[in-house]
Amino acid sequence: MTSWVGRTLDVEVGAVAHGGHCVARAEGRVVFVRHGLPGEKVRVEVTEDNGGSFCRGDAVEVLESSAHRVAPPCPLAMPGACGGCDWQHAAPEYQRELKAAVVAEQLKRLAGLERDVVVEALEGGPLDWRSRVRLIAGRDGRAGLRAHHSHRVVPLEGCPIAVPGELDDVLARRWRPGSELEVTSDGDGTTHVRELSTVRGKVRARQLSGGVAVQHAAGRDWRLDAHGFWQVHPAAAGTLAAVVAEWAEAPRGGLAWDLYAGVGLFASVLAAQVGPEGRVLAIESGRRAVADGERNLADLPQVRWQADRVEDVLAAAEKPVDVVVLDPPRKGAGRAVAESIVAGAPDRIVYVACDPAALARDVAIFAEHGYGLSDLRAFDAFPMTHHVECVALLQ
User: Fold this and answer.
1) Fewer Cβ atoms within 10 Å of its own Cβ: the N or the C terminal residue of the chain?
2) Going by DSSP bridges, is the β-strand pair 348-353/373-380 parallel, antiparallel, or unpaired?
3) How many CB atoms lie within 10 A of CB 308?
């Protein structure tokens, strides 16, 4: 088949799909369209075509516009420019509708569940929220973000979704081409910057400012590696911790597992519920995160840490367990971990997920073992992008 890359096609945009695009059809093939909205008629330029039944493209001209289309707040949110955002051309409330449709479709397709989904906005609005940004220096030394599905660096003058002032100093200077820059704004408004560069095949990290971030969530002050894991949206950690606290219902004196525990945000919630006479097993593979967690939760001796992979610990973990909280990486927990959780016979499983497809796949595995989805909440923790954060209760 001759590649369609570079071709322009006039199409009618169909339903939203997982990944920040919508589905259209042309000449018997599926075209995944970025920068379009359902119901629009657009002119698409094909940007990727590996043969087969589908290709990918950008809506370079809107022929019939959706009522939900708005002017993007960033001039780089357009075809061929910055790949950091997916939905700046959609009104914020409509973005949440699109994300809700994606979560519902993934649950139906992968878990066989029909469920109405509402994506809730977090405090603060759709801009000025991104507290962690990873930039790269282009050939001219200017820091920027990569174009969508490309290694090309798009230099930035600013970023409307970043915390105000967070990127000012980094964008004002030139850097060694190819250097990566990790920028974090913490809960006290301090900016932390680390430069990563590759010299003779080895990655070298240089902390340029800060290094230990202060965050506030779940009624505690946290001190942790500024570039380690913490929720990107300033309101996300507290919101998710509150949902976990409501749904976990760990019994006094009971046993709880916090899997993929990070620095122990959910472990702190579980520890308060089981009390001093209870036990919380917190498992996290990142050694720095475990060290931060041990320091931050030193006043909670009922929390026991294990620095290892979840799948390598659960077989020998104390059982039965009363409640399990897990917050796996984007790929999900997978069958081996899910079945190890089931072997612990918990009454409740609270699953925090950053990818709806992975969540749906794992929900289907739990259902095979008798654990049904009894509640679900979804949050717009990444406005302007296609990402959505979900919390599921399985019983």
Assistant:
1) N
2) unpaired
3) 13
237 and 386 share one domain = yes
386 three-class SS: coil
Both 386 and 239 in one domain: the answer is: yes
Q: Are residues 167 and 28 in the same domain?
A: no
Q: Is the pTM of this model over 0.90?
A: yes
Q: pLDDT 10s per residue in the chain (395 long)? A: 799 999 999 999 999 999 999 999 999 999 999 999 999 999 999 999 999 999 999 999 999 999 999 999 999 999 999 999 999 999 999 999 999 999 999 999 999 999 999 999 999 999 999 999 999 999 999 999 999 999 999 999 999 999 999 999 999 999 999 999 999 999 999 999 999 998 888 889 999 999 999 999 999 999 999 999 999 999 999 999 999 999 999 999 999 999 999 999 999 999 999 999 999 999 999 999 999 999 999 999 999 999 999 999 999 999 999 999 999 999 999 999 999 999 999 999 999 999 999 999 999 999 999 999 999 999 999 999 999 999 999 99
Q: How many domains does the chain have?
A: 3
**Residue 231, both tokens:** 């929720």
Q: Is 364 helix (H, G, I), strand (E, B) or coil?
A: helix
Residues marked active site are found at 354
User: Is the four-CA dihedral 188, 328, 34, 38 of positive or negative sign?
Assistant: negative
| Gyration radius (Cα) of the chain, Å | 22
Strands 54-64 and 21-26: unpaired
Is the domain of 51 the same as that of 169?
no
Could you tell me if 337 and 257 lie in one domain? yes
| 98, 86 contact by CB (below 8 A) | no
- How many angstroms separate the CA atoms of 13 and 258, rounded? 42
The single-letter DSSP state of residue 38 is T
